[in-house]
Here is the input.
Amino acid sequence: MKRISSASELEDLRKAILQERDPTKKIIRICNTGCRGSGSIKVADAFVHQITAENLQGRVTIKRTGCHGFCEIGPVLVIEPDNILYQKVKPDDVPEILSETILQGNLIERLLYRDPENGEKISQEADIPFYQNQRKMVSHRAGRIDPEDIDDYIAEGGYTALSKALTTMSPVEIIHTVEASGLRGRGGGGFPAGRKWRSCREAEGIVKYVIANGDEGDPGAFMDRSLMEGDPHSIIEGMIIGGYAIGANEGFIYVRDEYPIAVEHLSIAIEQAEAYGLLGKNILSSGFDFTVEINRGAGAFVCGESTALMNSLEGKVGEPRAKYIHTVESGLWERPSNLNNVETWANVPLIINQGVERYVETGTQGSKGTKIFSLVGKVRNTGLVEVPMGITLREIIYDIGGGIRKDKRFKAVQTGGPSGGCIPASKLDIPVDYDSLKEVGSMMGSGGLIVMDENSCMVDVAKYFIGFLLYESCGKCVPCREGLKQMHEILSNISEGHGEEGDVELLEEIAHFMIEASMCALGGSAPNPVLSTIRYFRNEYEAHIFAKKCQAGVCRNLFEYFIDETLCDGCTLCRKKCPEGAISGEKKQVHVIDPAKCINCGICFGLCKKEAVRVR
Amino acid sequence: MVTLTIDGKLINVEPETPIIQAARQLGINIPTLCHHEALKPYGACRLCVVEVVKHKWSRLVTSCNYPAQEGLEVLTSSDRVKRTRRMLLEFFLARCPNVPVIQQMAEKMGLKTSRLKKKEDERCILCGLCVRVCEEMVGVSAISFSNRGTAREVNTPFGVESEVCIGCGGCTYVCPTGCIEMVGELHAPGGRRLKMGDLALDPCPNDYQCATCELEKQFLGEMKRAVKDFRQQR
Here is the structure.
């Protein structure tokens, strides 16, 4: 690799890469990150094998990309230049795809996406409602480029923002641009990034650091992971620009070791950027030096908190410290440090390239740009979505997510990770931005959206999240450690049927106390799941405590299954599968559950095709 | 120097002085269980919370590590502070129902018992004083915190008998609840060892609560001597 030493050389390289490409050659883009779970490596390997066997190297090539977003239908592949999307591809489909689609241009019906609304088959990626209603700005490259090849990133316009920033803008101008863009921290806090940069630049000190927080630890969240895996250079480019603006020459990416592909792809990206001279000394002959190092975290949720992360980076135990002196003044090794989430960093090249005016077109008054969410839970189309700020939750869940599975009733959506809140159906039309989510008792968080249907018990949900936080709390300060423990105790009692009058009030009291007295944001936001479920689903708590009933059929001691006589067709399936022999009934006769024998395991409930097994 | 008001009284202190120290200069005592002037502020027990008002915006902070700033208004016993402190003591009481210092503090706040689920017999409040003395003053880190969350405890590395402990007794001395006990004599064969946990030994009859105790002076002297000996050996 030849070192790139000026903006024009970078431009020449881009042109050369594009020129070398054969426009007639088809490209099969296959997800090599998220879809690994559904077997995409085998599919890609089968393609490589088959292409060599049939000697098709001149006609088609395989590109192993990052996440396409639509995880529900994985493994996903897209054939360029026609942008045909095939879903749930298996290695056995490979010869047919090559012979039919690649060589003859025919579509394979059974691999096309079928719109559940009208049953129509859709061939074009862009026409699928899941993609249609999104606005991919930050994550648009993740499913398009090979994250292990810097040339692919450069061909797509990568590092142009860096060359623009280093050669035509002063550090102060860059900070001004980021401030004007209204970019707010994507990690959850929503602090204005530009203001943070300015404070760090103005802080006293010769040595300063920039840090990318890739310690995404929320259950059910994979936004940052997909960015790091699918488009690592965009994060690095953002960090170099940030370093230049702030006056830092060293950057750290803190990524959890549970993300091995992210670590691998980031390491490759750093190596390649170094080889091109985009990292290291005198970048693009600007006189600016910058290096990036990866630090692997051991997977503690609390290390996503900025001061705990810095402690961990220093090699100490990942425990937060008091933030009365801000980290932009005294952070890593007590030096001015600017920490942003990886998604925030990935927004930076976009802002520099597009300019403020275009960037602020997307979003709301207080929240600009887009946000990536991982849409999971009881929704039809699970996956990674990028939407403009200000979109409603209803649009995300119903238009993009395709609604609730099995047409069940929507109950709540949990936003913001474990310390976010549960938002009920009545609030589905609020715009998704930092301030509106806070108003309804939740938060943006890093962008997890967990959709829950009528079969979710909100007491159990609160208990689950408090249990998670209890396990992940560092235990340093009393309100968080002891408060979570006591809340978990009370919630467990309620869900086991031992709830007492006053429990809800005590929960609220502990919650407000924790918000007031905890040392860090983990303890300060930990009561959110409890407070928001009490706020919107107080009746469920009361039903658990007073009537000893769990309507959702989750808390085992508080409900029983019965068979609806009008629905049961006597198929005998439940009787055969019942591990306790609690169900009796003849073939084609109505079956009956013996409550004395039933252990509420729920097997019959899940099996019954007529949905005759019900909860009371 | 910066000027701030604490409970309505003006005081001049060096910038960055912790509020708790400034308050002490005014004779205002702020309760704490994890702060010691000789050690770095830690902010774990949260008992030293005070309300600070800055630009008409008030919030609770811990006075052991909040730096004094020009024009700051501090309230050390507002209703908000008292409410939080009371709740904290309720948690302490649930964790350590049998520790006299906790009982006394709770009683002062008008608290007889805790509404929360109590532990059987826990004495350690995880204030970290022992750990920090061992690290910052003695410099050996024979003990440290292990595990996290509710499993957090003070322990030697890997839970085996420490080889670096010099038996100075610093941890015993600073422990506010008396849960670290000293075994043996410093100059006796085998030296002095420290034991933690519920061992059948004779702890200080006053649970290490008495600030005027004769033992205290003895401890201090012995500790200094032990540290000096240890450093010379190295």
